Amino acid sequence: MQNTLVLYIVSSIFIFKFNLPYFYIFWFAFLTFVFPPPSLKCFDDSPEPTKRMLSFQGLAELAHREYQAGDFEAAERHCMQLWRQEPDNTGVLLLLSSIHFQCRRLDRSAHFSTLAIKQNPLLAEAYSNLGNVYKERGQLQEAIEHYRHALRLKPDFIDGYINLAAALVAAGDMEGAVQAYVSALQYNPVSKRLLVVFLSQHSRKQTSIV
């Protein structure tokens, strides 16, 4: 294809520059008919939108699998590729926030949570992630406020209740923590994870009273 295009261009220049007889022009026309010049579009290496979308989705799924497997370095590397493609994608911003939190890079985690909130002020998960940063820093009141705001935005947010309860336990508010678990159980009464945490905290409360 590329050689045909080169031959086509060179022949055109050669014939018209040197005023070759009509015979050569007719010959050139014949060659042009038999070997039509290739479209320049064929040299466009940019992927089609569908391919880009599939590539983005596949890379996002890979990053999530790596995060779940604890390979935070690989997950971050792939997430950064995704972020460069779609800097406003809240799913990518949330995952970057979670990755940095797991690596104890709290400033970076808060940064990406804040970016996610700017893109979508109603994104409960971003407020919860930011609450995790405050809790890790020992700023329990700020953490509790962010968890509660997340739950106002998304009342069936189970992880939000668990995070709120943990912060309330750390703040010494066992009654509030139990209430948070009870509220969560109303939305997900069969959650094994929630029941285990609830019973553990309830047991600790009873032990401390004794």
From TrEMBL:
<dbReference type="Pfam" id="PF13414">
    <property type="entry name" value="TPR_11"/>
</dbReference>
<dbReference type="InterPro" id="IPR011990">
    <property type="entry name" value="TPR-like_helical_dom_sf"/>
</dbReference>
<feature type="repeat" description="TPR">
    <location>
        <begin position="124"/>
        <end position="157"/>
    </location>
</feature>
<dbReference type="InterPro" id="IPR037919">
    <property type="entry name" value="OGT"/>
</dbReference>
<keyword id="KW-0472">Membrane</keyword>
<feature type="transmembrane region" description="Helical">
    <location>
        <begin position="6"/>
        <end position="31"/>
    </location>
</feature>
<dbReference type="InterPro" id="IPR019734">
    <property type="entry name" value="TPR_rpt"/>
</dbReference>
<dbReference type="GO" id="GO:0006493">
    <property type="term" value="P:protein O-linked glycosylation"/>
</dbReference>
<keyword id="KW-0812">Transmembrane</keyword>
<feature type="repeat" description="TPR">
    <location>
        <begin position="158"/>
        <end position="191"/>
    </location>
</feature>
<keyword id="KW-0802">TPR repeat</keyword>
<dbReference type="GO" id="GO:0097363">
    <property type="term" value="F:protein O-acetylglucosaminyltransferase activity"/>
</dbReference>
<keyword id="KW-1133">Transmembrane helix</keyword>
<protein>
    <recommendedName>
        <fullName>Ogt protein</fullName>
    </recommendedName>
</protein>
